[in-house]
Every structure is written in C-alpha cells, then in structure tokens.
Specification:
Layout: H1 3-16, H2 21-32, E1 36-39, H3 44-56, E2 61-66, H4 72-85, E3 90-93, H5 98-105, H6 114-130, E4 135-137, E5 154-157, E6 162-165, H7 173-182
Helix pairs in contact: 2-3, 3-7
The structure holds iron/sulfur cluster.
C-alpha cells in the first residue's frame, strides 16, 4: 500500500466514525462496487449487514467460508436469508474436503492444532476468494474483543492485500439486537440457546450471560480469533 492510500483511508475512516452502518455501507458501495465483497459466517452481525445491503446494493458479492464443520442451523440460515432478501451467499470451499484433510492428518485437527485447521479451512480460502477485489466488508465490532477494539471503520488489510471495511465497528451488542429485532432479520436460532458467537460446531460452546461473548470459541485454547481478523 502506498502512503497516499494510507492517508486517504485514515482520513475517510475518521470521517465515517460518526456515521451509521448504512451510511458507511453506502460510502463503501459508492467507492468500491462492483469490486466490493463481503465475508460472512452468518453471525448476527453478518445477517444485519446483509439486510442493509439488500436495500443499498443487493449485488454485492457475499460469501461464506464453508469449513465443512459448520452447524446445520448456520447452513439453513443461508436459505432463510435468500428467501427474505434474494441474496444468495456463495459457499467458498477449501481446497481439500474435510474427509481428505482428516485422512491426511489421521483424523480431525481442530482439537489439536486449531491454528492449522483454521488456516486451511478459513484463512487460505479467504485469501483466494478476495484476490482481485478492491475491498471486503467484515462484520466485526470493537466490543467483541480487545483485538477487534483496534479496528478502524476503513483500513488497509495487509494480510489479504485489500481495503477492509467494518461498518459495525462502533455498534454495541444492544444496538445490533435492537436492529435485528426491529427489522425482523433472520438469525441463527443458536443465539437463543446461549451461543452469542457462532463458529464451527466442534469449536463453539454456549456461554453464561455474564461471560465474554467470544469465550465459547476454542475453549481450552488461548485463542479467540480464527486468523481472518488478526494483523
Ligand atoms: S473453527 Fe475449528 S473446525 Fe473451524 S476451521 Fe477453525 S479449528 Fe477448524
């Protein structure tokens, strides 16, 4: 990234700090579409953004990294979002099927070396999918973790070599759910069963109401990120 682009992004990000997610998305669409894409794991945040994109620009390319380990409820949500908004989320497959990967390692590796499992099933597929695009939309919120707290609204993503836009960076969990319920946005039923953050089934547990919302991810490991949002 050159210095000029870095300065422009910092300036724009500062300007967007006080804007609503919809205003941020309108700016992103105006600036980057049709080279704008979005990754979603069908979390509540992603569903909210999809509902906003349905009104702003439904042709934005939206994809899910299909790890092969997602909950059935998560995969069904793709159909529900399509029925409501007409946005069909593309399922991006890893180079190896789960069966091929597990045969190569002699079994599942998510409980032994989750870094490698996430790299193979999320990070590398994302790298491949965003190649050639100018910007991607993510659903992260600053409140979710100390690491995510450092995110700008618009920033250069050096890991994947394109601009990253975080329209919900400023939203609290309460603001998110207020929007979802007010707009009848389809969401994963697991959220009502104690799962505030939903990833792959083997690496996601329900949490108590007073626990950190990502504390049910990779329990037993010192990690709360799969590698897509780490710098
Ligand atoms: S979240 Fe778990 S199952 Fe999913 S890719 Fe990462 S380690 Fe593998």
């Amino acid at each position: 990234m050159n210095q000029q682009l870095d300065l422009e992004l910092r300036y724009m990000s500062a300007q967007l700090e006080s804007r609503t997610p919809q205003q941020i998305l309108r700016w992103a669409v105006h600036t980057y579409h049709p080279k704008l894409c979005m990754a979603t794991a069908f979390g509540a945040e992603g569903c909210a953004i999809i509902s906003m994109l349905a009104e702003i620009e439904p042709d934005v390319h939206v994809f899910n990294l299909n790890t092969g380990y997602q909950f059935t409820e998560t995969l069904e949500l793709r159909e529900r979002l399509f029925e409501k908004y007409g946005i069909l989320v593309k399922m991006v497959e890893s180079e190896e099927s789960v069966e091929e990967m597990e045969n190569r390692f002699g079994g599942p590796i998510h409980h032994i070396i989750p870094d490698e499992c996430c790299r193979l099933r999320k990070v590398e597929p994302l790298r491949k999918e965003v190649k050639g695009w100018s910007a991607w939309i993510s659903s992260i919120r600053r409140q979710q973790s100390p690491h995510r707290a450092k995110s700008d609204i618009a920033e250069w993503d050096a890991k994947f070599n394109l601009v990253k836009i975080n329209p919900l960076a400023n939203w609290s969990r309460q603001e998110l759910w207020k929007y979802i319920l007010a707009n009848d946005v389809p969401y994963n039923p697991l959220h009502d069963r104690g799962f505030p953050s939903i990833g792959c089934a083997p690496c996601t547990l329900p949490v108590c109401a007073d626990e950190d919302e990502r504390s049910g991810r990779w329990t037993g490991f010192n990690r709360t990120e799969c590698g897509l949002h780490t710098r």
